[in-house]
Amino acid sequence: MKVIIAKDYEDGARKAADIIEKIVRENPECTLGLATGSSPVGMYKELARRCREEGLDFSKVHSVNLDEYVGLEGTHDQSYRYFMNTNLFDHINIDKANTHVPNGLATDFEAAAAEYEDGIEADGGIDIQVLGIGSDGHIGFNEPATSLVSRTHVQTLMLQTRLDNARLFFGGKLDEVPTRAITMGTGTVLDSRTAILMAFGKGKAPAIAGAVEGAISHMNQASALQMHRDAKFFIDEDAASLLKNVDFYKAVYADSDLRSLEA
Ligand code: F6R
Fold it and tell me: Which helix (H) or strand (E) holds 233?
């Protein structure tokens, strides 16, 4: 696990975009695992700029998203399909037929989850998985005490997660935040070839401390990334504020360019 402490949100967004750009340029047919939420929005803007101004080509790229609320149509302005279209897909030259978001309207969720896993496999697996982290340490919508080897499944959301998302996305209206989501499992995430987790702000500091320096535990799902073959955390000073080994991370990774990140 590499911890890169960025100067600020924009710096973190650019550094994370560098990793994605490298993978897309090396393998134009790669599969990107994507996340919604406030953390990756700046990176998506930067990727859209690079597509527009620097010819970064997404025409053959496939994508799979982490999760979707149960019960929301893709056209609902709070659905994750809508979020991805408006924050990324509408601004890059990806073929939307190659973009996949779990089906929150499935009638048989077990079948939908198995189909999603099969789709990932058919795409050759996930080359890079983008992640945010919940204040309770969730990745995707894998809440505390979910199995660390879980695959795509339906998850009941913790009240804290619904409160966080009500504040950020639903205009404060808790009643409108669905109670369940269909999400890739933490085991699905662990199978990705590279994982990048982005976290900014003081509110993320306890979850980041648990994920990076705590024991691996299903009570902080992101701590499972300690076992990932290539996980990189892009965080700001506030999110890093409860880490004990900040000086070490800064000395080794802070000003790293892509070459030294690979070391
Ligand atoms: C989103 C997702 C969630 C978010 C997490 C952090 O697809 O799977 O795990 O990444 O809730 O959300 P933000 O970035 O809004 O703080």
Answer: strand 231-235
pLDDT in tens, the chain (263 residues): 999 999 999 999 999 999 999 999 999 999 999 999 999 999 999 999 999 999 999 999 999 999 999 999 999 999 999 999 999 999 999 999 999 999 999 999 999 999 999 999 999 999 999 999 999 999 999 999 999 999 999 999 999 999 999 998 899 999 999 999 999 999 999 999 999 999 999 999 999 999 999 999 999 999 999 999 999 999 999 999 999 999 999 988 865 554 445 54
Record the pTM: 0.95
Q: Which of 46, 68, 136, 236 is catalytic?
A: 136
Pocket-forming residues, ligand 1, beta carbon under 6 Å: 35-39, 66-67, 132-134, 138-141, 168
> Would you call 252 exposed, middle or buried from its count of C-beta atoms within 10 A (0-12, 13-18, 19+)?
middle
